[in-house]
């Protein structure tokens, strides 16, 4: 089945991609979960190019015959279409599939069921696919299976992107060409000496500075012998100190090969090639003749003094540039460290969730499992999906990319309401004290995220107090926001909500890291390290900030600052009727979704709930179907992120063209929503349940 690589460069790149996938510890678990969950006999993570399908990691329970590194011609697979369209292909039964029943690929490789999900890197680059096949028909085209494949494909893409960033940095650092370029560009002479002081290498700049025709005349000679006799003792002493581990610097006089006088500054240091080789010395020679001559002239005239000042200014500028370059390198290093920490945290938490799903699926496959236990495991899978959605939400909150639903509310009332329910969070031995002023205080923010932030800070306080102490919730209005973490303050006014505990406090070396994602000082299993990250992200995205004051052994105070607004702007958000039935009664709904699997899933849900649906594959198609009078539709349910016109633009157009037609938007994440909000439209967050979808549509089409 294998075909040769088109060229060695492409082969090297493929080998690097295989190595990158094999370095992801979660991939074998993902392939095992895929096979056990779906019943498929073969699953693989593949690199897909214009002409090749290459297996990077496989699980083969049906003797399909491919191992990591095995290749197929891409034209004999279904992945050419997936690579070009960027969408998944799902086939329950080839013989019954309208699109692929006559396709030659199933017969060529002997499969009856097939699923392949594209793996797309964060920058939009198509890497390959996560796929599975089996000679028997299977039930694959379900929201759970497709969603699981999408989650795994995105997780693999995340790891590949992090790996590529680290590998790129390492490759540049170790590159021989990189080292050669540095030596060629160096303004100084670079000399490599043996441990006994014999010259083994001199760079081109050193040859030029010493006015040599080539380095052949000096290689192998003792380095000290290249100096005048009066300078050799100083040179030999510096080499001895360098061999002992010091960095030795000397200045001395040594004429060039042509007899021209030169003053040199030479720095000596020791090193071992590759860290383990024989001891070597490096001598960096800098021509300081001009500096020495300038110093002599300085004692004779004021003009030379001005010249020296100009030289000094140039050196200061060069030093400043060097410092700026070093700071930039440090920032890049810190970014790479943060990516590594984030990758590790995501992998850890998602592997925990995968463990729950895999174990639950194992038990659900047992035919003798009692109904009560079956419900328990089904609930575990459903709860795990909710936890995964919450994890991604917390990550988006820290990155300030979550979609907020800002509304105006009175902070004091919400603070009292949260305080009333904190007993269930903190326990009976923690006394909760609330201090709220009589004056009303209004802010415009996402109420749900505000309450979540308070609970996260309260949970942090509870753990710091080991379950016993006093938690004080205090609100002050019309406050100024002080400088926080080096950022300038603001006059406001701000509503300041503080939570003060009597716990153990935070060690000074940890205060600067407590808002980092996955950073925690708690015991294993006591927290994810994302709670305070959510508080930080919510505060920043809402136009405020969060400050922390702590003294070890005396307790900690977190203060959340949110911009305060005038009471006249206060409006109540309509309450959501959770008792509203999700079942429709034949209302016509236009579903706008470019993804085939999601579109089928959404229309099927709505049809099962009693709605009459029509599916449009993009916003332009939807506008044609609606026409000038709405086309008889009673609501539009649209995805936000689509090629061409997006969901927000479609909803705005319909608000102008058909103001009485309700529009409901759905999105897992959109940078437009994160930056600008939902513009007053109903928004359903992914992942959503059938009941949530039915209820929000029922409310949208209800008489007003």
Polypeptide structure, described:
The chain is of the alpha+beta class. Helix content is 43%, strand content 22%. The strands form four sheets. Strands 12, 13, 14, 15, 16, 17 and 18 form a seven-stranded mixed sheet that branches. Strands 3-2-1-6-5-4 form a six-stranded antiparallel sheet. The protein has a five-stranded antiparallel sheet with strand order 8-7-11-10-9, sandwiched between helices. α11 packs across α16 and α14 packs antiparallel against α16. 32% of the residues are buried. The N terminus is likely disordered.
**Could you describe the largest sheet, including whether it forms a barrel?**
7 strands, mixed
The backbone outline, from C-alpha atoms, is extended
Which class best fits the helix and strand makeup?
Answer: alpha+beta
Radius of gyration, CA atoms, in whole angstroms:
34 Å
User: What ranges have pLDDT less than 50 throughout 5 or more consecutive residues?
Assistant: 1-9, 397-401, 569-576, 670-675
- Total count of strands: 23
The span between the termini is 64 Å
- The overall pLDDT average reads 81
Give the amount of beta strand, in percent.
Answer: 15-25%
Organism: Methylobacterium crusticola
InterPro entries: CheY-like_superfamily, GAF, GAF-like_dom_sf, HATPase_C_sf, HATPase_dom, His_kinase_dom, HisK_dim/P_dom, HisK_dim/P_sf
EC number: 2.7.13.3
Protein name: histidine kinase
